[in-house]
Write the structure tokens for this entry.
Amino acid sequence: MEPEASSFETSEILATFVSSTAVLEATWRFCNRANATPNQGFVMEQVGKIGYVGFPSMGNMDSYSQSGVLTCVEDSENNQMFSPLQRQINEGEKPIMVEAAFLHLFLSIYPTFRTQIVALMERSKSIVITGHSIGGTTASLSTLWLLSYLHSLIHSPFSVLCITFGSPMLGNDSLSKAILRQRWDGNFCHVVSKLDIFPRLFFVPPFHISHCLQLLQTLWHFFETSPELAAQLHNEEKVTMFQYVLGCLEKLAQCEGGSNHSLFWPFGSFFFCSEEGAICMDNAVSVIKIMHLMLMASASPDSSIQDHLKYGDYVARVSSQFLKQRSFMGGGLPESCYEAGGALALQSLGMASQESVGVAVKDCLKRDRKMVRTPNLNVANLAIKLSKINPYRAQIEWYKAICDDSDDQMGYYDSFKQRGNSRRDSKVNLNRMMLGSFWDNVISMIESNEVPHDFHTRAKWVNGSQSYKLLVEPLDIAEYYRNGMHRVKGHYITHGRERRYKIFDRWWEERRVTDAENYRRSTYASLTQDTCFWAKLEEARDWLDSVRRERDKGRLDLLWNNINDFESYAAGLVDSKQVSKDVLAKNSSYTLWLGKLTELKSWSMQFSI
């Protein structure tokens, strides 16, 4: 086990590290440059090998009459812009949705932005994208597009970082999940000040959005002119808006599964800053709870609105020198490392003197700490578990060898599909389920951020998952058709294939291909290289049966086209020796299907004559 340490050292040390670099000051300066030319849409500049992109706080205000309304990304004409994220959404989950006005604003500048960012990338090694307020959401969308674009360029060397200041929420919990599953959460850092109400606005329910719009419009106006215009918002309206937001945050903070109670949801890392310091967090539930607890400390609704304009002050204050000067005043050093971590975190949030919320803040920090505590240790433990389940895999390989050499000459797939109730068959089926459970747990750990961000690119796990898929998915297909699930749910590939296999397909496609993998086989593969071969054959068997019954010429032509396509596809696999010898066994489903196809073609020719 890892030695016990302060539960808050991650949030504290990471914030100190970020503060000690020049990145916050550089990005804030660039935000100011973008704000100085709001009609330009964005500004770009190269500093050394780093390209900076900044978006103004305002943008085109004509698109904001319906702020707070979510729109489905896949319904957009440009849905392919974020295709890697789309692939991360499982069947039955809510689609990815983003704030409609923000998406409209991004699409309005996209053609020009794409041209200029590609040109900037030719001269840079890293890209930093930033924005304040509404510009922050545009920066986030631009970063998501750029990451999707780079994803299509396999093994692109570019690093991309998005830093926003006081940015409102962008999308729903499905967007947050997809970003986490795609391992892009580390590319986003959202700076949020202690009292700024703007990042908290869209946590209110839809029927209170009109109140948000009043505040947004006022903020827009005093951005354009001067902060004094904030006084034009009547105190009663300020109090009403403040209470709406605070009340909604309080309800969300009390719900463990808060994503079911809010249209919008956080993603990425959050850098919470106050006049006393800063902490970093990346657990969405904890982020919302901290947002609530910090806003509770607001002296007045005025301060929660005015704080939105003070990020320049916070960036200047939150430096490594300032953090080092903090001390535990009055009470000396706490007795334990745990207490020291908690006290430092509370002091960083500017809440050290508020004992009433201290316990709640510590609980949030502990939750966040657990999410990122020991990713490397988790990988080591997974490697140990993998070695422990290897005997299950070996037993299945032994079973395949026996089936392939059996006198019945059915082969691996058909033997398992038509198996009896022997102890050996039951053991293989149990091993199949045990291996599936292990790999499902691996995927769960990846998606909950419990392993390093590059886990899915490591050769050990890419090759291991591929070997598992080649060996076991044919058994899953056999079990699916053995139980007649295709008659209940539909054919396997569309309706029955486990999500883990789709993920492993993506890992394998995105791996770095070596020259040794491009050779032409001289012998048949030990395992069929298309793990869905048998599922495609099962569909082809249905087509063949349907041909005998079909009388409609149009449908008959479609069936024959499908059959001929599969025949060519299978022949190509056999010719390139990408199939195992069980495919060509005398009594395998494939061999029997070829025989029936030959008979049917002969019968069809006689009938046509």
User: Anything to note?
Assistant: The beta strands are 43-47, 50-55, 70-72, 97-99, 126-132, 159-165, 188-193, 269-274, 277-281.
